[in-house]
Amino acid sequence: QPPNFQEGSDVLLKRAECRAKGGAPGFKVAILGAAGGIGQSLSLLMKMNPLVSVLHLYDVVNTPGVTADVSHMDTGAVVRGFLGQPQLESALTGMDLVIIPAGVPRKPGMTRDDLFKINAGIVRTLCEGIAKCCPNAIVNLISNPVNSTVPIAAEVFKKAGTYDPKRLLGVTALDVVRANTFVAEVLGVDPREVDVPVVGGHAGVTILPLLSQVKPPSSFTAEETEYLTNRIQNGGTEVVEAKAGAGSATLSMAYAAAKFADACLRGLKGEAGVVECAFVDSQVTELPYFATKVRLGRAGAEEVYQLGPLNEYERIGLEKAKRELAGSIQKGVEFIRK
Ligand code: NAD
Ligand code: LMR
């Protein structure tokens, strides 16, 4: 086994902890599903993040190889690998942030809800581990269907008595990344200059880009609005079809997840004004969970922002999104309660 697999990295860990105590921020981050399509690239990107001092890679397969590989990168974070359910608790103990891309991806013709059967159980087991071993960690949930897996995680934490709504965030960052890219293409500008709020949830019509609130302020024709909304809502399916049975978005997702995790860590560190979209416990609509902009701080999603003014097109989209979201949320809640 590679030298820093499991227990072999104690010296390096002590050094990392000293660095953290010496003033340099150092957070402990676990990736669950680290050997998968998203997990591998995300492990690479989190190993490059200077805010991470310890990186735990957990999966039910292949973590020794991924861990050995990533651990050779000459960046600060100490990497440790954990393989299979018996090592889940060790992987989670002491973590500040847990990122979950574990679970099966879509194939052409499937909806995200078709993944519920398998992924609901995976998310339940992993969240039971979090409730037991790192109940104060921030959780970034990527596994689909996010509109149902976030309620599942919340119910597991409620059952365990550890639920803190500020600490559970469904990752919708890829919708924002796509929206910025597609809007920038239409406007003919650099995507890094564009900020598109995307609200609602993370599946089909529940993905609601607010083009009326794009920064810098921009106007779109009815055709552009229709084209952009459809493209953003179907960005995931575009990748699933292009991959033709080999899975769904992994590289752009790892990029989006790493960007979002970095925002969570900057919030934890106390940086002011960190704002991202995420699917969270919410009172913005009548639904118990909803994606909007949130302000990230030491406690997680410390502030959940209102939707702001919507135009007629967005108001109609919002009603459609809420109808679908209600069913997906209910399905997740019932999976744990029944
Ligand atoms: P993948 O099949 O390549 O990788 C999934 C990994 O999860 C595998 O390595 C597998 O061994 C692991 N796994 C399975 N059961 C596990 C368990 N019980 N504990 C720990 N690990 C386990 O899939 P992928 O392409 O990386 O996608 C993963 C998930 O992310 C899918 O559900 C996909 O739909 C979702 N996803 C979400 C978004 C989003 O925007 N939120 C974007 C893309 C993909
Ligand atoms: C995405 O948006 O790319 C993910 O949710 C994966 C999928 O199934 O589309």
TrEMBL record:
SUPFAM superfamilies according to UniProt: LDH C-terminal domain-like, NAD(P)-binding Rossmann-fold domains
Entry EC number(s): 1.1.1.37
Keyword set includes Oxidoreductase: yes
GO cellular component: chloroplast
Keyword field contains Oxidoreductase: yes
Catalytic activity: (S)-malate + NAD(+) = oxaloacetate + NADH + H(+)
Stretches assigned to the Lactate/malate dehydrogenase C-terminal domain: 172-335
Protein name per UniProt: malate dehydrogenase
Organism listed in the record: Cajanus cajan
